């Protein structure tokens, strides 16, 4: 236990993890890099997310309480949190356990593999608490307030918060370890690491959509709800993560003996899962992690023609952007967090429409309503998707941070700063463009907009995406995270991407909201949006020119 404690303390103290939240690190000249400002910004982000989820619970409580079903809020929220943590966890564990460069510092210490693994598990677990706290804790707090729960409920809620993420993270970690153990002996580690990351994410998404499919298939049209614990969704998730069921029942029956028994069972099951994780990790972790950071190269003899082709001069902007794209594609942590997330985002639109279940009729009604909307409204929605897609693509908002200790290269390479920045934005466009093609294909297939709307939306989509990428890279120029010891910390634990996402949701959501309040015609709507986005692009470009000269001189 002493080794685990000191290793965990070292892992938190040696990187920029906590300083991203304003809890460590040196003060810098940027006002947004100072500790009080960081804490304030994080609290504002936490509060904004909490208000959105909490307000949903507030509105839902009155409707459910009329039928005595208010406990459904808890019975759905807690299992949903377990599923969400599992999805984020398997994506996160691959980076922390295997793709982090600090692994080399710990492998040679006189400690057991399980102790290193348990320390990394605790570090990863802390960040799942932030996800749980922002998305699900407000819902449960609102439930307790409206249900007039006593102090014991909040004590149970604190204990539940500590233990609910444990089993989903253990399952995600075991899957990751088995995948990486299978790569022992493979020569091309870079390629396998990439495949392993994609496979891990595929498993998590398949697991999530599989649960939704099973829950819908278990539901019958004549179903009468008499026991909320028998709802298909709750039953399926409870089978996948039993601790979620124990936690929700403990909160519902907090004032009785059964609630205490459920809580004790939750604690026991969580501790048992950690013991299993320690034993398995102690046996297979080293075998999977040894050599995982090694890179391989092919010694290929080039012909004269191939050499001339490889050394052909290219425009600076194109050559620099291709260099950035190759770096994104070849680094597992960058590929998974920056590229893969952008490409799988459109799948979340299509999967619900492919799952046949009792909600199919409602989905068809929603599709019919969207199809019946005016062309101008559809145009605004498609332009807003350019903002949303740009907000989910974190390539621009982490482009300076990814330079890390090699940031000085940007200062001495004979390429203007703005050219370098737009090359990074262009590398983001390569990925975003492919995601846009997928998204447009799905939108045309599902909602069948007119060809005029599609053609008019393309320049608006491009301008919206340019503005969003300019906005994102400006954030990273102003407060880059240059001190990190693993690639995943430059992208996954970078608060700049959160500010980018928040901005895109704010702009995109505001556009859609305004489109519902007005009834513009197609051509005036197109011209207005084209002018607005064009002006925003020019203004942001001018601001970026001034910002980069000042900030790069300070860094």
Please describe the topology of this protein.
Layout lengths: L1 H12 L21 H31 L6 H27 L4 H4 L6 H23 L1 H10 L4 H13 L2 H16 L7 H30 L13 H9 L1 H11 L4 H33 L14 H7 L5 H15 L1 H13 L2 H8 L5 H13 L2 H18 L15 H5 L4 H31 L3 H28 L8 H5 L3 H23 L4 H33 L1
Helix pairs in contact: 1-5, 2-6, 3-5, 3-8, 3-9, 3-10, 3-11, 5-12, 6-7, 7-11, 7-12, 8-9, 8-12, 9-10, 9-15, 10-11, 11-12, 14-15, 14-20, 15-20, 18-21, 18-23, 18-24, 20-21, 21-23, 21-24
Description:
With 555 residues, the chain is an all-alpha fold. The chain contains 24 helices and no strands. Helix 2 packs across helix 6 (137-146), helix 3 (72-98) packs parallel to helix 10 (232-240) and helix 20 (417-447) runs antiparallel to helix 21 (451-478). It starts with a helix and ends with a helix.
Could you state the order of secondary-structure elements as H and E?
A: HHHHHHHHHHHHHHHHHHHHHHHH
Strand fraction band?
under 5%
- Report the major sheet: none
On the 0 to 100 scale, the average pLDDT is 77
- Low-confidence runs: 22-29, 220-226
Query: End-to-end distance, in Å?
Result: 41 Å
Rg calculated over all Cα atoms: 25 Å
Give the proportion of residues in helices. Answer: over 70%
Structural class: mainly alpha
Protein name: ABC-2 type transport system permease protein
Transmembrane segments: 39-61, 81-100, 121-146, 152-180, 192-215, 260-280, 333-355, 378-400, 421-447, 453-478, 498-516, 522-544
InterPro entries: ABC_tran_2 (IPR031599)
Pfam families: ABC_tran_2 (PF16949)
């Amino acid at each position: 236990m002493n080794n685990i404690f000191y290793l965990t303390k070292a892992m938190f103290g040696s990187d920029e993890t906590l300083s991203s939240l304003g809890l460590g690190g040196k003060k810098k000249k940027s006002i947004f890099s100072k500790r009080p400002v960081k804490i304030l910004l994080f609290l504002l982000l936490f509060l904004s997310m909490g208000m959105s989820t909490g307000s949903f619970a507030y509105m839902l409580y009155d409707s459910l309480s009329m039928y005595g079903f208010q406990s459904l809020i808890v019975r759905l929220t807690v299992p949903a949190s377990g599923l969400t943590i599992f999805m984020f966890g398997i994506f996160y564990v691959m980076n922390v356990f295997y793709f982090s460069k600090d692994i080399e510092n710990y492998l040679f210490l006189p400690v057991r593999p399980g102790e290193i693994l348990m320390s990394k598990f605790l570090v990863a677990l802390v960040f799942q608490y932030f996800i749980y706290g922002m998305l699900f804790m407000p819902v449960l707090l609102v439930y307790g307030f409206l249900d007039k729960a006593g102090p014991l409920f909040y004590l149970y809620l604190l204990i539940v918060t500590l233990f609910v993420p444990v089993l989903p993270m253990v399952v995600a970690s075991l899957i990751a370890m088995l995948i990486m153990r299978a790569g022992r002996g493979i020569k091309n580690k870079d390629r396998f690491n990439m495949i392993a990351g994609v496979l891990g994410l595929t498993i998590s998404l398949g697991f999530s959509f599989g649960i939704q499919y099973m829950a819908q298939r278990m539901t019958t049209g004549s179903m009468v709800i008499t026991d909320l614990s028998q709802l298909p969704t709750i039953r399926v998730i409870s089978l996948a993560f039993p601790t979620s069921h124990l936690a929700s029942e403990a909160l519902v029956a907090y004032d009785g003996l059964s609630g205490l028994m459920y809580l004790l069972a939750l604690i026991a099951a969580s501790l048992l899962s950690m013991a299993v994780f320690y034993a398995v990790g102690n046996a297979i972790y080293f075998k999977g992690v040894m050599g995982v950071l090694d890179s391989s190269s092919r010694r290929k003899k080039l012909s004269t023609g191939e050499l001339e082709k490889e050394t052909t001069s290219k425009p600076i902007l194109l050559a620099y952007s291709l260099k950035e794209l190759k770096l994104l594609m070849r680094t597992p942590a960058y590929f998974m967090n920056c590229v893969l997330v952008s490409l799988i985002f459109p799948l979340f639109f299509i999967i619900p429409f492919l799952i046949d279940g009792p909600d199919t009729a409602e989905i068809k009604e929603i599709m019919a309503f969207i199809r019946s909307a005016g062309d101008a409204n559809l145009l605004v929605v498609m332009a807003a998707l350019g903002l949303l897609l740009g907000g989910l693509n974190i390539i621009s908002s982490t482009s300076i941070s990814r330079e890390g200790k090699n940031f000085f290269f940007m200062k001495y390479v004979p390429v203007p700063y703005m050219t370098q920045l737009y090359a990074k934005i262009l590398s983001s466009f390569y990925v975003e463009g492919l995601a846009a093609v997928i998204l447009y294909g799905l939108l045309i297939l599902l909602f069948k907009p007119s060809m005029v709307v599609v053609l008019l939306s393309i320049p608006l989509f491009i301008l919206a995406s340019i503005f969003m990428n300019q906005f994102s890279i400006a954030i990273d120029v102003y407060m880059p995270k240059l001190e990190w010891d693993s690639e995943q910390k430059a992208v996954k634990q970078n608060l700049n991407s959160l500010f980018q996402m928040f901005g895109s949701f704010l702009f995109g959501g505001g556009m859609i909201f305004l489109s519902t309040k007005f009834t513009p015609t197609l051509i005036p709507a197109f011209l207005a949006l084209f002018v607005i986005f064009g002006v925003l692009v020019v203004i942001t470009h001018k601001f970026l020119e001034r910002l980069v000269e000042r900030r790069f001189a300070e860094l």
